[in-house]
Amino acid sequence: MTEFLDHNLVPDFEFSEIRYEERPIPTPDGGRVEGLHNVWIVLDNPKQYNSYTTPMVKETILAFRKASNDRACVAVVFTAAGDKAFCTGGNTKEYAEYYSGQPHEYRQYMRLFNDMVTAILHCDKPVICRANGMRVGGGQEIGMATDFTVASDLAMFSQAGPKHGSVPDGGSTDFLPLFVGIERAMFSITLCEPWSAHKAYRYGMITEVAPALKVDGEFIANPMVITDRYVDDYGRIVHGEYKTGADRKAAKELMARGEVDLSRLDTLVGELTFKLAQTMPDCLNKALESMRKHKLEHWDRNRESNRAWLSLNMMTEANAGFRAFNDGTRGEREVDFLALRRQLAEGAVWDEAFIQTLNPHIKALSR
Fold this sequence. Notes:
By secondary structure, the protein is α/β, with parallel strands linked by helices. Helices cover 47% and strands 14% of the residues.
């Protein structure tokens, strides 16, 4: 027997901010593959919709390096705790209370974030994003860095940057046009409107969709989404759009009657990992590396300049946007965009007094 060397950056590291689990590979007949396993890397911050804190980012990097070196690992499943969110991006409390106004600190943080994305793209195993819920902002970016996405049909996909004082330059501006084309990517990245899992699947952004809502013991498609394919009066394909008006109200009532069950999502993930196990490992790795070059071409070209800009932005729009989101309540977490634009047009200077005038929470207190 070969006595293997340990190539992990931190041998015997104990994870505490995320979960690192070895799980069996299911076989089609209900059994388990002997002598091999999958690694599940689980973001574990469900109370804050699995947003990643600085310690979580560091552990995620180590987790992907460890899984990459695991000789018995067939695939990595990147997912999160609960059924509400895969990841909503960076932890806005940490952004608002520590990084806002501190560009040099945020620059160091962005080095870690960049290394996390790169660790996913460089992993020596296929990486599957198990989208157990919403995938937003930086969560969308780390999700698109993976090789496959299998999603609950209750999942929602969107950007958040320009609505909250940032730009999705941590991967989305590099990756999203490769998935959906430049026009659709432009629409998503600038306006931040949410896409259902059905729409994301239709656009080619994700691999598989699984029903996840049970009503009266039976799985049903997400009732909030139009799942019948038809063309509206403008000639647009409506399949995958969110319902509005009375239809949305009725869908919410149906949702309230149901329960979330992710068993079919896990079945699809398991089937995919078994299929990956039925390949030549080195040929599989080379195929992954060749396909990832399309993402890496853009990522490697842009990440350093994007990191620098995002850091400096912590003095201006991010300083205002993240603090407004952190301080505000549901429905009041965005600055007054029109007032912001008017004041800048009149010569306003980005100082603390100006930033506070933009905060909807402070405005509410003064009323």
